[in-house]
Write a structure and sequence with these properties.
single chain; alpha+beta; about 30% strand
């Protein structure tokens, strides 16, 4: 029945005013949700109301639609309030409802008991409350309550007894901490085997299932045991992951994980979740689980003087006589009729076993049937016959174990004793069967027998397993042979286990089934064997590591295990530990960026282990071995953040949904939580702006923006207001401001009732601080000539009558000096239509600084519009030229002891001291502008930290430089390199942390004052080049003309062609096995100027080229430098030079492709000659030069073409796409010749480019000597369907092309096959699909190959070179490995 009873509604109406005024409804929303009175959506809805009375009105209105049970829960919530007046109100309401329930006979529930029967209770109020409570309890299903008992071990009554007094004590304390708002901590301590864990599990189950405690979030059981700090961290990280906490891979200390879980529980209102920590051995570990404000722990130790307010409960270690007899009864076979009570022998056994529950369970499993058998037990305990070496503390208990073990037959006894090899964890049936080397069904029957004797607890089901008490494991670890040490016995057992595992998986460690134990502890048991071969075999098995990472859902566990193995290898003076340490460091460094669930460790190591030769070599071996099952040409999808070891991010988060979610803003943590605001699904239908709590990564608010394109975002310092610039369908740019507290849009008002309709500002910037409880912002008009200051309230944005109007366009506005001042600058000239700068008055820029409070101009400065370099120095002087010199691009204000400007002219930046600066600009009185940037890279996005101590700037959107500032001078700097282009970098207000956001939607945090950072001194930066005698004095004059790379003798080699305008050198850098101490580099001087360089796999010579220039150099010169890796710098080195002299009608010569054919030592050069007539025309030249006889063979094509594109090139075939006319296309294939046979045109295919298009398949011969090339083509058109393609090319070709045709709008497609390998391209040689046999990967058409010979790299055709990791693909301007 829904709806309150009439008398309950009357009670609400009578107390309506008191309820709405005294109760702070915002504080009880979560409690109402936990009581199932409110839903999640209703809680979020009520949180939006600012007025408490309105919120109360809405909640009471909703409560009237519920039933009386819900109102009773509402009263209970009020009674549990920390405010006395609210507690009294709850009691008053409950009492009134109780009295009315008696008067109305409780008609709401139509119970079988008449109302008169309530008088039979001593207190009618208590009786009614009990009935209401029972009804509420029964409304919750048993199944739903079971979900509250996360990982809590079962304690069936058929096996365990209930120790009433002990359990009652625990239950009372659990109920007490459940009622307490602050929770509480309980510690149950007692000797091992006293039944602490069972009693705690029974008590927790009772208070949750029967007494409705901890109903909000239930409990979580965690086994601790006798473990190290590293293992505890491992367990807590797993716990954090299971709770849903992100980025646990970056946590590397117990203090940090404790704090992280605590914050998560507090932020998600789960502080009342009950945690059970079982069997804590180390007192220090109690300090690391304080994240649980509500917990109960067990320990065999009574930790004296522990803090954190633990309630200590000593375990009742001995069972009473009745309890012991009861336990024996339920555990022994049902057909045994031996009477237990009144037997002195039974009492004697119980007494000699100290009444320990574990010992009693073992005694019960003996199934003693006569006085003689009981007497034998007494004798055995008193006079032990075992030779086991144990301490006195455990003697009687261990003797009890031996009694049960000796009852087993000889085979089963031997098998059971071997179980001592396992860790104190859940042991799978599969692992036990592997150890025993028997069938699983037979192993199961033995385990059931052992379970019946209480020697272990066996659980059947989908994953059969057993658990041994840690005391039994300790007993089983004792050797039977007294001459044998525990360590020797352990080695024997562990070797037997590893041998069993080995036979099951044929030493292919990765294929063993995931049974919950094997992968988790394999390396641990391998270490215990003390067998170096086994340890190294597993440490070299990257496939097993890959499986383990996926199963554990973290890399951390693998690293912990490997570090233990490394520690053992070091004690054995094994030299290979260093390479394993290198692997661990590699995994740790990139742990946060690797996709754990889909990780391919071999691919990862091929990508990241460039400097680790042995690791990379092993990865190559595995890649070659698995070439049938896996393809290693694929692109790595993780974010590889390459940074110096001294400057690592302290945090990383993933935000946004797409690559164009590129703009972010942050609030000021001095005025509340640090919030990050960013777009999601930008420019799509479900586009929105997310507001995220930075510390918890929780998104608690979203602003819907339809399908607009978000261009910029700003946020108020307290995070309450968000402004964003969007572009609508009409391409109009509009700024909108939202109040995230009520999700309402705010509008700009210039006067009281005059709302601005067009909010098309160019810039909107919030003041970074709150002045006098006012939030201010500045707007810059769309024409960039008017600035206004506004004040925000909850419902609108009001004009403050502070504005500036400038004749010229304002280039930038900035809040400076903690929001007390505003700085702006503009050019006193404008850009005219043709893109040049027209001078209006003088050739300079104006800078003004205004005081916010008085709105008065404090300072006005003029700086040069352009500067030119002072001869021979890193200083710049103003120039009056409108074309020469460097143009001013950026200005920032800095006041670090000395007032100055951070100023950028083109690519040069520096600090301009204001105290030395003159307003009157001329070349004679202008103080030189010293640049701190000495190269020609592009720098932008400059910002200054709030404390004025740091400046950062980005270089080419891939590198960040952070400078330390003091006394107006740059003191030192640090550099950060990224693999992805940067979207934005910004300082967190009022502290020294830097946030970096890249195009891969990764947000990194760097602490700039972290200990150990290696800041480089500025004063040495100019002279860095002098440290190398090969470098020039001024790096500005040095230019890198070209670069190339290759693998030669299995080592990576790179070359750079460098010139200073006068001399040309080849810089050679060698990596790999010959360079143990790291890469080495040297320079080779060249005899003349060149502009291109090439090196090739497995070729010991390099090619340098002097390009054709019709005026300056009418010849194309190609020089082959032999033995270029020699460090002897000799310009007269051995070389081959070939000069190509084109005809006079040729206006340009371009080298399109070079490659080396190892089979016959031939260099292949693809050249294009350019002609000018009515159209630009191109002619193909193919040169094959045999490097042995140095004889070139030249093929010159007769036809000229308007356009020419190289589609495909390998050692023997060239495929090109040509344009004959605007409508005529031509596909050509050439067979590349050698020193005896010239290159020839094998086929050409003409097609209509516009009306028809082309779909073509070319099958290249695997054996180029005997097989012929095969070509099939279809005319593209609307009639071209999947059945048509299947008919011509079969099922595979039809399916592949059908997928391409659905997604692409191009009209020209080419499929190239070579054996089982294939690739599909468009007419621009963009990769659409690539694969082998039935395995393929599709691309979005943004990819092209840097080298045409890389088409087949990674397809694993059985050649060694096919596995080499080279930059395969190019996307925009970004190379991907």
């Amino acid at each position: 029945v829904m709806g309150l009873s009439a008398y309950v509604e009357e009670i609400i109406e009578r107390n309506y005013k008191t309820i709405t005024s005294d109760v702070t409804f915002n504080d009880i929303l979560v409690d109402l949700r936990c009581a199932c009175i409110l839903s999640d959506d209703e809680v979020e809805e009520f949180q939006k109301y600012d007025n408490n009375k309105i919120r109360g009105f809405k909640i009471l209105k909703l409560l009237k639609s519920r039933n009386d049970k819900d109102f009773f829960q509402f009263c209970e919530i009020l009674k549990n309030s920390q405010i006395a007046s609210v507690q009294d109100l709850g009691l008053k309401l409950e009492k009134e409802v109780t009295e009315n329930a008696q008067a109305h006979g409780n008609e709401q529930y139509n119970t079988s008991e008449p109302a008169a029967n309530l008088s039979s209770y001593t207190d009618g109020y208590t009786a009614w409350m009990k009935k209401m409570f029972d009804i509420f309890t029964n409304s919750v299903s048993i199944g739903s309550k079971e979900s509250l008992l996360q990982d809590l071990p079962q304690t069936p009554k058929s096996i365990y007894i209930l120790r009433k007094q002990f359990n009652k004590t625990i239950c009372n304390q659990l109920k007490k901490i459940n009622r307490s708002q602050s929770g509480g901590r309980i510690l149950v301590h007692g000797m091992p085997g006293s039944g602490k864990t069972i009693a705690v599990c029974q008590s927790v189950r009772q208070v949750i299932m029967q007494e409705n405690c901890f109903q909000s979030y239930g409990c979580q059981w965690i086994k601790i045991g006798n473990i190290s700090n590293e293992e505890l961290l491992q367990n807590l990280r797993s716990l954090a992951t299971s709770l849903g906490i992100a980025n646990t891979e970056r946590v590397h200390s117990l203090v940090e994980i404790n704090a992280k879980i605590r914050r998560f529980l507090q932020d998600n209102l789960q502080s009342k979740k009950l945690f059970i920590f079982d069997d804590i051995w180390n007192e220090e570990h109690l300090n690391h689980v304080t994240f649980a404000s509500t917990s109960i722990a067990t320990s065999r130790f009574n930790f004296a003087g522990i803090g954190h307010g633990f309630i200590c409960i000593p375990a009742v270690e001995k069972l009473t006589l009745d309890e012991a007899i009861q336990l024996i009864k339920i555990r022994r076979c049902k057909d045994i009729e031996y009477a237990l009570k009144g037997k002195n022998l039974v009492q004697d056994v119980i007494q000699r076993c100290n009444g320990l529950p574990l010992a009693m369970a073992i005694i019960a499993g003996l199934n003693l049937k006569s006085d003689e058998e009981w007497q034998d037990v007494v004798d055995m305990i008193v006079t032990p016959k075992s030779v086991l070496k144990v301490n006195e503390y455990h003697r009687n208990l261990f003797q009890t174990f031996e009694l049960s073990i000796k009852q087993l037959n000889q085979e089963h006894e031997k098998l059971f004793r071997s179980l001592g090899v396992f860790k104190a964890a859940k042991i799978s049936l599969q692992s036990i069967a592997s150890l025993w080397q028997i069938h699983q069904l037979y192993a199961k029957s033995i385990l059931l027998e052992l379970d019946s004797k209480s020697l272990l607890t066996f659980s059947d089901g989908n994953s059969p397993s057993c658990v041994l008490h840690d005391l039994i494991i300790e007993h089983l670890q004792q050797p039977i042979d007294y001459q044998q040490s525990i360590q020797q016995y352990s080695i024997i057992l562990n070797k037997k286990l590893i041998d069993g595992y080995s036979k099951k998986c044929q030493r292919k460690w990765s294929i063993h089934p995931n049974d919950g134990y094997y992968h988790q502890y394999l390396l641990y048991h391998a270490i215990q064997t003390h067998d170096l071969n086994i340890i190294q075999e597993i440490m070299n098995d990257f496939e097993w590591m890959n499986v383990k990472i996926k199963i554990d859902n973290t890399i951390y566990n693998l690293c912990v295990d490997m570090e233990k193995a490394i520690a053992y290898l070091r004690t054995e003076t094994n030299e290979k530990w260093q390479r394993y340490q290198q692997l661990v460091e590699l995994l740790k460094r990139h742990e946060s960026n690797l996709p754990i669930k889909s990780i391919d460790l071999v691919q990862v190591l091929l990508t990241l282990a460039a400097d680790a030769v042995s690791i990379r070599k092993r990865a190559l071996e595995l890649a070659e071995k698995n070439k049938i099952d896996n393809s290693y040409w694929k692109i790595a999808v993780f974010n590889y953040q390459k940074v110096e070891k001294s400057f690592k991010p302290t945090k990383s988060k993933r935000i946004g949904k797409s690559s164009i979610d590129s703009c972010i803003a942050i609030s000021n943590p001095s005025f509340g939580k640090l919030l990050v605001i960013f777009p999601e699904n930008n420019n799509e239908e479900n586009c929105g702006i997310a507001v995220m709590d930075y510390e918890t990564s929780k998104i608690f608010h979203q602003i819907e923006t339809a399908s607009e394109m978000i261009l910029d975002i700003a946020v108020s310092p307290n995070g309450h207001f968000v402004a964003f610039k969007s572009r609508d369908n009409d391409e109009k740019h509009i700024w909108k401001v939202c109040n995230i507290n009520n999700n309402e849009e705010l509008y700009f008002f210039e006067r009281k009732l005059y709302k601005i309709e067009d909010q098309d500002f160019d810039q909107v910037k919030f003041c970074p601080v709150i002045h006098n409880n006012e939030i201010l912002l500045i707007t810059l008009s769309m024409d960039c000539k008017q600035l206004k200051v506004w004040k925000i309230n909850e419902k609108s944005i009001r004009y403050t009558k502070k504005q500036l109007s400038i004749e010229h366009k304002i280039a930038s506005i900035e809040w400076i000096q903690h929001g007390n001042k505003v700085m702006l600058w503009w050019r006193r000239y404008d850009e005219v239509d043709n893109g040049t700068w027209g001078i209006k008055e003088n050739w300079y820029n104006e800078i003004e600084i205004w005081a916010l409070e008085s709105w008065q101009r404090l300072k006005s400065l003029q700086v040069p519009a352009r500067v030119v370099k002072r001869s021979g120095l890193y200083e710049y002087l103003p120039t009056a030229s409108s074309t020469d010199g460097l143009l001013l691009t950026s200005i920032n204000y800095l006041n670090s002891d000395t007032e100055c400007l951070v100023i950028m002219y083109g690519r040069k930046g520096g600090l301009l001291m204001l105290e030395n600066y003159c307003k009157d600009i001329s070349e004679n009185n202008f103080h030189p502008f010293p640049s701190f940037i000495h190269n020609n890279d592009w720098y932008d996005n400059i910002a200054v930290s709030d404390d004025q101590q740091f400046i950062y700037m980005t270089k080419d959107r891939k590198e960040i430089y952070v400078f330390k500032v003091a006394n107006g001078l740059l003191q030192s700097y640090i550099e950060l390199k990224t693999s992805y282009c940067l979207c934005k970098s910004l300082f967190i207000p009022d502290n020294n942390r830097l946030l970096v956001y890249d195009e891969n939607n990764a947000l990194y945090e760097y602490v700039l004052e972290e200990e150990g950072l290696k800041w480089k001194p500025i004063e040495n930066d100019e002279n860095n080049d002098n440290q190398d005698h090969e470098r020039e004095k001024y790096p500005d004059t040095r230019q890198i003309l070209d670069s190339s790379y290759a693998y030669i003798s299995n080592d990576l080699v790179s070359v750079k062609l460098i010139t200073d305008g006068k001399r040309c050198k080849l810089k050679v850098r060698l990596y790999g096995s010959r360079t143990i101490s790291g890469p080495i580099h040297f320079y080779r001087s060249l005899d003349q100027q060149y502009d291109k360089c090439y090196i090739y796999d497995d070729l010991l010579s390099a090619t340098v080229i002097q390009s054709y220039d019709r005026i300056k150099n009418p010849n194309l010169i190609i020089t082959q430098l032999k033995y270029f890796q020699s460090q002897d710098d000799d310009t007269d080195q051995d070389k081959i030079t070939w000069c190509y002299n084109p005809s006079k009608s040729v206006i340009d010569v371009v080298i399109k492709e070079l490659r080396y054919r190892k089979a016959d030592d031939t260099l292949i050069i693809i050249i294009l000659e350019k002609f000018e007539n009515d159209h630009t025309l191109w002619r193909l030249i193919v040169v094959t030069m045999n490097l042995r006889n140095e004889t070139p063979m030249i093929y010159t094509e007769h036809d000229l073409h308007q356009e020419w594109k190289c589609i495909y090139l390998d050692a023997y075939y060239l495929i090109t796409s040509c344009k004959e006319t605007s409508f005529k296309g031509l596909l050509k294939c050439y067979r590349i010749g050698d020193d005896h046979t010239p290159t020839n045109n094998v086929f050409e295919l003409e097609y209509d480019r516009w009306s028809g298009g082309l779909v073509c398949k070319i099958s290249l011969p695997i054996n180029h000597l005997s097989d012929k090339l095969h070509v099939e083509s279809l005319r593209y058109g609307a009639w071209l369907s999947k059945p048509t393609i299947i008919k011509c090319w079969g099922e595979k070709g039809g399916n592949l092309f059908d997928m391409i045709l659905k997604e692409e709008c191009n009209h020209e497609f080419l499929m190239i096959e070579r054996g089982n390998d294939f690739i599909i391209l468009d007419e621009q040689a963009k990769v659409l699909m690539k694969g082998k046999s039935d395995t393929f990967k599709s691309f979005d058409g943004k990819f092209s190959f840097l080298k045409k010979q890389n088409f087949w790299y990674g397809v694993l055709n059985g050649t060694k070179s096919s596995l080499r990791l080279l930059p395969l693909l190019k996307m925009g301007d970004k190379s991907v490995s």
